[in-house]
Design brief:
Shape: globular
Strand order of the largest sheet: 5-4-16-15-14-6
Structural class: alpha/beta
Pfam family, one: Molybdopterin
Family: Belongs to the prokaryotic molybdopterin-containing oxidoreductase family.
Keywords: Iron, Iron-sulfur, Metal-binding
Number of helices: 24
Protein name: Molybdopterin oxidoreductase family protein
Largest sheet: 6 strands, mixed
Organism: Aquamicrobium zhengzhouense
């Protein structure tokens, strides 16, 4: 039999936490089995290209270690299989008992972006609001970047990202797009081939994206604002500023010019580690290239001064006036263009504004009883966790683990694999994967709304997020409230209806909907999103409405009084000092996605083991040899990795790529032992790439001396 003739192609969208949200063509072998996954050629953003890890998705969906049965803990390390009915009955029983003792806020539904599907991801909030469980302030990913961007533009939207292909210069700032947003490179490289466009990459190390650049600028972490200010200084100094544009579209260009008079390339060189020639050359390139497209990522905003850095970088295009041209302007994220109606999915009508909110990033502090983190409310004694792995991905990992190990905490985890968090749970429920349920997605890095219909049946056992929410609602007595009892397809119809985007059936036929506004709107030629229509060089840090503002009960976050009046460099970062001479960034690995794909053989083989990228001169000073064990630490703890000597980083900067499972590290503790959960100004957010550390060489050990670590990780 010719198996190839039996394969059909199904259409879907990648569900993972990535701005690309790639449209997919999936080989369907039978009702439970997939083959290769391809990028959709018919989608002009995906353009037939996807990352290798998703192309190999069959490794994940058919993985032999996938969770297939509900599990109930019967002791330390002992699990017993259970029926779905028994497991859900136990969860409801424990939640009701916790609520009876401490009130409803003692239960904390906790989730994030393991799926970006709007129905499966967000339905947990419907249960939250119906039961008046503790609120969830989402801070782990986007706050710092989105806040800084919107401070300038007034809206989380920008130039059509497909316009990169029509640009004469593409600036990829603070994102390793080859590893994390592969489609950015598709359009940038097309511009270089067809138009001779220059690609500029700005980052903290010589990563895969920088290797494809025409101009690469490697600067010190947390200093992007200084670079942006020096560039704008040169633009004003050398006559590249577009004064007619500035006068019409910006709030205080004369004040900005005066402020920048002292922000010279020499000033920025001392802060960033770049040479003055590098700064001057970059400024001259964009000053003489009107069609310059700034593709601003998330990485450079994951500092305590990240919102300031983002605002400063976004401000450059307003000085040059590149917004006026096709192929020019700025793009960061398109969330502001969709206006999708999520009220029914979220249970918005059920929300009680009096209920406290807890900071997602501070789960370690919450679970260990920190009074400030608990916001004056009761302890958290029950958790429902979907789509995230906080024991691995959250900052202050030792506190997180300590909290999960409390005897009085009951935890239910709904998961696809036995993650670090699932291992600490009391009940583990097996979850479906994206090809096994219906959902709808919106692009962050593009402008498409894309349907992800169910294409294959799950194995016997896993259930959808919506199923878990609905079944718990029945047991907890709220299933008769607004929003419950609807199927995924009915939820999708309601989401689409408000903006006349069609229906589940029409989108299944069309596959996606292009929501990009017209050119004038996308380029803010009708005015920016603030009331006066101006781009704000003078951000109103405390009063501007941003996409993920802290709830009113929390108020402004972090040292907001230290934020600058104009774009600037501010020393809010965890600077290196005598005791901690290195700055650590925990950058993404190419074949992992946060803690996802760390279980697939293809990704594990390509990544090898947890390593620390270390400049050879720093290694020599420490007495560290290539491939040898090195310990790094700070006040939060210490972690052991293997050194990888690498001259594509500034001295004093070390990089640990990827969020490896905790057990992949020598002592069973992962890299987030070293990251902090302090709320960053002005709207909160986790500064994952902003850590000072010390480092020291360790003697090599035999693999047998490293409990819990397989040979592949041994040195």
């Amino acid at each position: 039999m010719n198996l190839a003739s039996e394969v059909r192609i199904g259409h879907s969208v990648c569900p993972h936490d990535c701005p690309s949200a790639c449209a997919l063509d999936v080989e369907i072998i039978d009702k439970r089995t997939i083959g290769r996954v391809h990028g959709a050629k018919a989608n002009d953003y995906t353009a037939g290209v996807i990352c290798a890890k998703v192309a190999r998705y069959a490794e994940r969906i058919h993985h032999p270690d996938r969770l297939l049965k509900p599990l109930i803990r019967k002791g330390a390390g002992d699990w017993q299989e259970a029926s779905w009915e028994a497991a859900l009955d136990l969860v409801a029983e424990k939640f009701l008992a916790a609520e009876a003792r401490y009130g409803s806020e003692t239960v904390w539904p906790y989730y994030y972006a393991g799926t970006m599907g709007l129905v499966q991801r967000d339905s947990i909030n419907r249960l939250r609001h119906a039961k008046k469980y503790s609120g969830f302030f989402s801070t782990i990913c986007t706050n710092l970047a989105w806040t800084g961007y919107v401070m300038g533009t007034g809206r989380l939207a920008g130039a059509d990202p497909r316009e990169m292909a029509k640009s004469d210069c593409i600036v990829i700032w603070g994102t390793n797009a080859v590893a994390t947003q592969v489609n950015v490179m598709t359009h940038a490289v097309r511009a270089r081939k067809e138009r001779g466009a220059k690609i500029v990459v700005i980052d903290i190390y010589d990563n895969a994206t920088m290797k494809q650049s025409d101009m690469g600028l490697i600067l010190k972490p947390g200093t992007d604002g200084a670079l942006a200010c020096a560039v704008m200084h040169v633009l004003f100094r050398d006559g590249y500023a577009d004064w007619p544009y500035l006068e019409k579209y910006t709030d205080d260009p004369h004040g900005l010019r005066a402020h920048l008079s002292s922000r010279t390339p020499e000033w920025a060189s001392a802060i960033t580690g770049l040479t003055t020639d590098e700064i001057e050359d970059f400024a001259r390139l964009i000053g003489t290239t009107k069609r310059t497209f700034f593709r601003l990522g998330y990485g450079f905003a994951r500092q305590r001064n990240g919102s300031v850095n983002m605002h400063a970088a976004a401000s450059i295009a307003a000085v040059t006036g590149s917004w006026q041209y096709e192929g020019g302007g700025v793009f960061h994220n398109s969330a502001g263009i969709y206006n999708l109606d999520l009220a029914t999915v979220d249970g918005a009508k059920l929300k009680d504004p009096r209920i406290r909110h807890l900071d997602q990033s501070q789960i370690g502090r919450v679970l260990t009883g920190d009074a400030e983190a608990l916001r004056g409310g009761p302890p958290v004694t029950a958790l429902l966790i979907q789509n995230t792995n906080p024991a691995n991905v959250c900052p202050e990992q030792r506190l997180v683990r300590q909290g999960f190990l409390r005897d009085d905490l009951f935890t239910c985890v709904h998961e696809q694999f036995m993650t670090d968090t699932a291992k600490l749970a009391d009940v583990v429920l097996p979850a479906t994967m994206f090809l096994e349920h219906d959902d709808i997605y919106r692009g962050g890095g593009h402008q498409y709304i894309v349907l992800g219909p169910k294409l294959v049946d799950p194995p016997e056992g896993p259930r959808t997020n919506v199923y878990v929410v609905e079944e718990l609602a029945k047991r907890l007595g709220v299933s008769d409230l607004h929003g419950f009892g609807l199927s995924e397809q009915e939820h999708i119809d309601r989401i689409l209806a408000r903006q006349n985007y069609g229906t589940y059936e029409s989108l299944k036929k069309d596959r996606w909907f292009d929501a990009q506004p017209d050119f004038e709107t996308s380029h803010y030629l009708n005015g920016f999103g603030h009331a006066d229509g101006k781009y704000r060089f003078r951000p109103q840090w405390a009063s501007t409405s941003v996409p993920n503002s802290p709830p009113r009960s929390l108020g402004p976050q972090g040292p907001i009084d230290a934020l600058p009046v104009f774009p600037d460099h501010v020393d809010l970062i965890e600077v290196a000092d005598e005791a901690h001479p290195f700055r650590l960034a925990t950058s993404p690995a190419r074949t992992f996605l946060n803690s996802t794909f760390t279980e697939t053989p293809g990704s594990l083989k390509r990544e090898g083991r947890p390593e620390l990228l270390l400049h050879p001169d720093d290694a020599a000073a420490l007495g560290v040899m290539d491939g040898r064990r090195v310990e790094i630490g700070n006040r939060r703890g210490e972690v052991v990795l293997h050194a990888k000597l690498f001259d594509g980083v500034k001295r004093g900067v070390v990089i640990a790529e990827g969020i490896w499972p905790n057990e992949a590290h020598e002592r069973g503790e992962g890299i987030n032992v070293l990251t902090g959960a302090d709320a960053a100004a002005p709207c909160g957010g986790a500064a994952f790439y902003d850590n000072h550390v010390w480092a020291r060489a360790l003697e090599p050990v035999e693999p047998t001396e490293m409990p819990g670590v397989t040979e592949v990780f041994a040195g």
